[in-house]
Amino acid sequence: MEPEKKKYTISVALVTRNRADSLERCLRSLHQQTVQPFEIIISDDSDDEKKNETKILADKWNCKYISGPRRGLYANRNYVALVCKGTHIRTMDDDHEFPKDHFEKCYNAINNDPNSIWIIGEIYPDTKNPLLLPPPCPGQLHPRGYSSTPSDSQDCWAISCGASIYPAQIFKNQFLNVEFFKFGASYLEFGSRLHWLGYKIRQLEDTYIIHHYDKNNRSFSNRELELSSMFFAVFCHSFIYQRGLKNKLLTVAEVLKKIIFDQKIALHSLSKALHYFKLHKQHIRRSIAYNKTKN
């Protein structure tokens, strides 16, 4: 008699803010899945006057509603992930939609390899060319601060901020998104850090998300903080996780270039990034020490 396979469960950790119409499209798409997730938890960072709309939708589509921390996108991701009860956590944004077999493919992936982090590519609804699988792979952090396509989508440090499947133990071990910045490239640091910690990151190549991105509906935009977020991410990448000389030189060159072309903003951003970089190094040491004593 064959041993019984371990049952894995996927919790949807869905973050939202002031976008009821977009959220309902996302929830309708989830409801139409051939295989349903274990639970859907909506963490709502909406303004007070908008919260009731989200609560109504959560009740309509049989989701758990929680009020978010209102400290930015990445804080909200951590907050909802720590509430999830499944063995795996699927991050999600309210402007996503899915093919009907999406969660069937997600479950196939974690049953095949439950210890890896699975990242999911996206397409846009106005894509004119027919979709050819696999979709574009999410990007990984380049030492110059931008998102670049991995050479190996099955072993990389790429991350999809709103479309990844994590073993829940990652969050239970307090390996979290940094919360210093409300927006920007700091999310790419999470992929680089998890790769450094020994987690395998793989693209789930036989499904995708449909991203209804609206650049005019962003809840946050600040050039100085976005630049600080990018500086912070590359300092972590090139001076902690992948400390080769080439990476360090590329990062320093990029910082100098930004200072030359935009001195005032770049210098302010650099000061903030270095401050948070020092704090983050201390946090990493503490979290690793904590997990060593626990295990």
TrEMBL record:
Domain of life from the UniProt record: Bacteria
- Which InterPro entries does this chain map to? Glyco_trans_2-like, Nucleotide-diphossugar_trans
Sequence ranges assigned to domain Glycosyltransferase 2-like in this UniProt record: 11-119
Q: Per its record, what are the GO molecular function terms?
A: hexosyltransferase activity
What Pfam families has UniProt attached to this entry? Glycos_transf_2
Going by the UniProt record, its keywords in alphabetical order are: Transferase
Protein name (record):
Glycosyltransferase family 2 protein
Q: What organism, scientifically named, is this protein from?
A: Rhodocytophaga rosea
